[in-house]
Amino acid sequence: MIDIFQIIENHRSIRKYKSAPVADDLLEKILNAGLRASSSGNMQTWSVVITSDLEIRKRLFKAHFEQEMLLEAPLLFTFCSDFHRMRRWVKLREAPDNFDNLMSFMIGAIDATLASQNVALAAEAKGLGICYMGTTLASCDTIAQILELPPNVVPVAGYVMGYPDENPQLRDRLPLEGLVHKEVYTKYSDEDILNIYKDREQKGWDRYMSVPELRKMIEESGVDNLAQVYTQVKYTQESHKHFSQNILKCLNKQDFTNDK
C-alpha cells in the first residue's frame, strides 16, 4: 500500500524533466483524484486546462516568467476558478444567477486549489513530479487570453508535470509552532517571530548563495539577509502592485466583480 504520509513528506519541486510523455490512462487516473477533492456545496466550481502542445506553451512562456521547465516538462496544468459552467446550467434550469461576484470567485479559487493538490499528490504517488508556478495567478489575465477562457473562468493555480530528471534535496519548512494556533491566534513576541524564522534565514540564505546566478543577483542588489531578498529582490512592492492590478483586471473582464 502507498503511504500517503511518505508521499507528502517527500514532496519537492521538480524543475528538470525527462522527455517521456505521461500515458493517457495514467493521466485519467490522476485527474480522477481531483474529482474527489472537497468542494463548496459539491458544486465543483473548478476546471483545469492541460497543455501539452509545445507551441501553446511557447506562447505562455513569457507569462510564466520564462521558466525553462515550462518547455521541458511534457504537461502544463492550469487550474481555474470556474463558474462559467455553473452559470450556464442555472440559466438553462431557470434558476437565479447569483455567481457574478467576488465571493463566487473565491469559492471557485478554493475548489480549484483543493483539486490541484489532490492531482499533485496522485501524480507523485505514481512517480511523476510537479512544480507549482505562482506565475499562474500573477499573469492570470494574459494566461486567460492565451487559453481562450470564457467569462467566469480565472486561472488561480498551475504546475508543470512529468517524469523527474533530477532528485533535489528537500527544502526546509517553518516549524509547526509557527503555523498552528490552538483555540485562538497566538500572540507572538518579536523574539518568537525571529525564532520561527531562524532556520529559514540560514538555510534559505545558504541556498541562494550556493547557486552562482542567485549569488550574483544578491551581491549586486546589496541585500544582506533573507527578508531583504524576499522584499527587495523577489517580491517588491512595485511587482505586487502590478500583479494585483492584473488580477483585478482579469476578475473584472471575466465578470466576477458585480458586487452590489
Task: Report on the architecture of this protein.
With 260 residues, the protein is α+β, with helices and mostly antiparallel strands. The protein has helices at residues 4-9, 24-35, 54-60, 69-72, 84-92, 102-125, 135-138, 140-146, 190-196, 198-210, 212-221, 226-234, 237-253; strands spanning 46-51, 75-82, 129-132, 153-162. The protein has a domain at 4-168: NADH Oxidase (3-Layer(aba) Sandwich), CATH 3.40.109.10. Helix content is 50%, strand content 11%. A 4-stranded antiparallel sheet has the order 1-2-4-3, with helices on both faces. α2 crosses α6 (102-125). The relative contact order is 0.15. The mean pLDDT is 96.
Quick structural summary:
The chain is of the alpha+beta class and 260 residues long.
Radius of gyration using CA atoms only: 20 Å
Strand content: 5-15%
Number of helical elements = 13
CA-CA gap between termini = 51 Å
Helix content: 40-55%
Structural class: alpha+beta
Give the CATH H-level superfamily of the domain at 4-168: NADH Oxidase
Choose one word for the global shape. Answer: globular
How would a textbook summarize the main sheet? Answer: 4 strands, antiparallel
Q: Indicate the mean pLDDT.
A: 96
Low-confidence stretches: none
H and E string: HHEHHEHHEHHEHHHHH
Look at the structure and give the CATH class of the domain at 4-168.
Alpha Beta
Q: Per CATH, what is the topology of the domain at 4-168?
A: NADH Oxidase
